[in-house]
Amino acid sequence: MSKVLDPIEEKVYKIYGDVVGSGRPVRDPSTAVKLLEERYKLVVSETMVSIVYAAFMNGRPVLFEGPPGTGKTEIGEALLELWAGKKPFILPCSETYDEYKVIGDFHPVMAMKKGFNEESFIPRPLLAALILDTGVLVDEIRRSSEEFQNMLLDVIDKRRIVVPELRRVFRARGPGFQMIFTSNPEDIAQNELSDAFLRRVVRVRFDYPPRSVEERILKLRVNGEPVLGDSVRGLILEAVRRLREAGITHKPGTAEAVAWGRMAQSIARLRGRTFVALEDLAEAAMSVLAKRVDDEEVVAEVLKEVLGVEVLQG
Ligand SMILES: Nc1ncnc2c1ncn2[C@@H]1O[C@H](COP(=O)(O)OP(=O)(O)OP(=O)(O)O)[C@@H](O)[C@H]1O
Ligand SMILES: [Mg+2]
Predict the structure, then answer these.
(1) pTM score > 0.90 for this model?
(2) Which pLDDT band, with edges at 50, 70 and 90, does 134 fall under?
(3) Per the domain annotation, does 2 fall within a domain?
(4) Dihedral through CA 32, CA 56, CA 52, CA 89, nearest 10?
(5) CA-nearest residue, atom 4 of ligand 1
(6) Spacing, Cα 5 to ligand 2 middle (Å)
(7) Is 224 found in the same domain as 102?
(8) Residues ≥6 apart with Cβ < 8 Å to 187
């Protein structure tokens, strides 16, 4: 006898099934570390992977907290995908996020005609993730309201979603349904995370990586021709380190180190060079590193010291 598919499940598979896909979960931390590097070009320690996996085994959500551009979003997304063997859903938070946007909503015209029932119900990512047994990355959780955070915790605590209008309770199917939150506590105009929230999560602190790790990341992410040689790479590493200590508002993350290397590489390519010259690096510098008017002077000063040449704006 063939199984009759639940109408909500059917909708979820139809809308999201292909996007989420289905592969083999990777639950061994050392294999995950290798794949993170080879497949995702991410340098992640085995300790970090083990903590995240241990949290998942205990049904706990994970909070990635740290400065901008340190890999929180990309690492979160990749780890959820490896753990579940399926693509995760990403929820980029804002104040206006609520259960209608993440669990489900009703089509207004159809609901008027046919009522608030399964036919007029439109499933959204959080419910879809639970049904498809995959992860959810809740990006920039501090931008969401406290009610929203509490709603998510309730879902994770009980591993179920209630939709009162349908008089239905959906339950998690397997261990693939997990959550990672990202947050940058230094970002201005954001909400505090409540004690109730913090009590439940496993917190992983992100920071600017040590020089040797940032060097590996640059080698992994800025490769090919025009070649970024060791000495030019060394200048990038030194300049971003100094800028982080210089007390500027917009500190460069690893993201900016990579962006700077790539911009310099493109400038070198436009000039028909096969290697990145100091000149290319200097030319790209201000546009990538000075993001606020207040920072311009200090950034230019630090860059001049490290690169040994004058840098110009635009
Ligand atoms: N560990 C890492 N391995 C490889 N690349 C990294 C790593 N950390 C940072 N990067 C670089 O930084 C970029 C941005 O990372 P990501 O957007 O995940 O950072 P984030 O911490 O979420 O930043 P934000 O707080 O601005 O959202 C990546 O595309 C990559 O170039
Ligand atoms: Mg991010």
Answers:
(1) yes
(2) very high
(3) no
(4) 80
(5) 42
(6) 37
(7) no
(8) 68, 140, 142
